Amino acid sequence: MTKARLLRLSVVLVSIFMILLIIVYWDNVGTAHFYLHTSFSRHHSPGAIPGITTGEDWEALPDVDEFLAKLLSSSLKQNSSIPQKTEQLLIQGSSKPAVSYLEENVRGYDWSTHNDRNSLDQEKLQIERQRTLREFCANSSFAFPSKERSFDDIPNYELNHLIVDDRHGIIYCYVPKVACTNWKRVMIVLSESLLNQGIPYRNPLDIPREHVHNTTTHLTFNKFWRRYGKFSRHLMKIKLKKYTKFLFVRDPFVRLISAFRSKFELENEEFYQRFAIPMLKMYSNHTNLPTSVREAFRTGLKVSFSNFIQYLLDPRTEKMVPFNEHWRQIYRLCHPCQIDYDFIGKLETLDEDAAYLLQLLKVDKLLQFPPSYRNRTASSWEDNWFAKIPLAWRQQLYKLYEADFVLFDYPKPENLLKD
Predict the structure, then answer these.
(1) Same domain for 224 and 197
(2) pLDDT band at 225, cuts 50/70/90?
(3) Domain tally, the chain
(4) pLDDT for the residue numbered 81
(5) N or C: which end of the chain has fewer CB within 10 A?
C-alpha cells in the first residue's frame, strides 16, 4: 500500500509540474500555432480614424472569432453607460496635481497655450506618416530583426506595452521617453482603472507618478492569456481590428539622450544598481563602487554618456538581458509592421498631435492632455552630446536604431555620421 501511495503521489506531482511548465511556456511564446491563424489586417481610407462599429463591416470570421466579436460589440455598448474596472487598485490620495516628483521638478511644466504656433494640417500629416510606415514595412529590401514575423509569432511578454481601454475602444502602445507618463495618465482616466478614495480620477495630473507606472494599473495585451486562455489571441486580433490604435514616437538619438538624462543624471537607485554599477566597472575600470546612488553622486561618480553608448553597442549587453524599455527600439516595443496603427503622433509636435487625437477619439470634452515639459530634450542638443563620441560608434549606433529612423520618417543625422 505504501508503495502504491507513493507512486500515485509521484504521478500527481509530476502532472502538476508538467502543467506549470506548459503554462509558463505558453505564456512566453504566446498562443501561436495552437489554433487557426486568422488575419484582421486592413487599411483605412486616407485620413480616416475608425470608431467603434457594431458589426456592419465584419468580414467572414471563424465561428470562435464571430462569437467573440459579437460578445465584444455587446460589451462595448454596455460600457458606454457602465464603467468597467480593469485591474482595479484603490488609492487613497490627494486630489492636488502630482507635480512634486523629482523628474517633474527638474523639468518643470509648460502651462502656456501655444496660441502662437501654426496649426498643422493633421489629416494630411497622418496620411503621410502612415504611408511612410506601410511602404517601408512592405519594402523587402529594407530589413531589420523581427520585421517578417507575423503577429501570432510575437511572444506574449513582448506585448506588454499595448494598453487597452475597453470603455472607449482604444489601444495605446507606450514608448518610454515619449510623453508616456502623461499618456498613461490619460488612459487611466479614460478606462477608470484607478480609484482615488473610491472615485475614478478625472484629472490626469492628479494621478501620482508611482501609480502611473504600476503594472497592475493597466490592462495590457500580455495579460490576456491569464484572463482569456486560448481565446486571448482571438480577442487581441478583434480588438486590433475594431479599436483605434495609436502610439507616439521621437527622434531615436534624442530619445537616447533623454533616457540618459533621466536615468543617470538624476539620483535613481534602481538604475544605479542595475545599470550604472556594471557600466562603471566594465567601461571605466572602477572598483569598490559606492553602494548607493546618493553616495556615488556625492563623490562625483556618475556614468558618462560615452559609457552609456559603449553599453548599447556592446554585443554582450543583449546576450545578458534585452535592452531596457527606456532605450529599446520603438519597433521592438510596438511592432509597427505587425500592427496597423491608426494614429502616429510625434513628440516634436506633441501639443498639436495630442489635441487632434483626443478630438478624433471623441474624448476631448472629458479631459485635456497634460501640459508638456518646458525643458524637453531638444534635437539641437545632438551635436553637443555626441561631440566626444567616436565617429565609428556613432555609425554603429545609427545602424542599431536605423529602423526607427526610417519607419517613422526621421532624417538621417548625416552631420553626426561623417567627419
Answers:
(1) yes
(2) very high
(3) 2
(4) 37
(5) C
**Residues 132 and 227 placed together within one structural domain of the fold:** yes
Residue 195 has pLDDT above 90, yes or no: yes
3-state secondary structure of 155: coil
All 3 cell numbers of residue 207? 494621478
State whether 281 and 412 are in the same domain. no
Task: Report d(CA 276, CA 256) in Å as an integer.
Answer: 15
Same domain, 334 and 412: yes
Q: What is the pLDDT of residue 1?
A: 55
User: Residue 354: enclosing H or E segment and its boundaries?
Assistant: helix 350-360
Is residue 28 within 8 Å of residue 157, measured between CB atoms? Answer: yes
Report the relative pairing of strands 343-346 and 244-249 from DSSP bridges.
parallel
Contact 195, 216 (CB under 8 A): no
Looking at the fold, whether 339 and 244 belong to one and the same domain comes out as: yes
Q: Decide if 361 is inside a domain.
A: yes
pLDDT at position 36 over 90: no
pLDDT of amino acid 67:
55
Q: What is the pLDDT of residues 100-113, one digit of tens each?
A: 344 444 343 333 33
> 181-185: long-range contacts at Cβ-Cβ below 8 A with a sequence spacing of 24 or more?
181/209, 181/212, 181/213, 182/369, 182/370, 183/248, 184/212, 184/213, 184/217, 184/218, 185/212, 185/370
Give the CB-side neighbour count of residue 206, counting CA atoms within 13 A: 19
Q: What is the mean pLDDT of the chain?
A: 81
Burial class (CB in 10 A: 0-12, 13-18, 19+), 221: buried
pTM score above 0.85: no
Name the phi and psi angles at 317, rounded to 5. Answer: -60, -55
The answer, yes or no, to whether residue 52 has pLDDT greater than 50, is: no
Q: Are 178 and 244 found together in one domain?
A: yes
CB atoms within 10 A of CB 128: 14
Do 290 and 387 share a structural domain?
Answer: no
Nearest to 332 by CA among 220, 227, 164, 176: 176
- Domain containing 292 equals 263-320
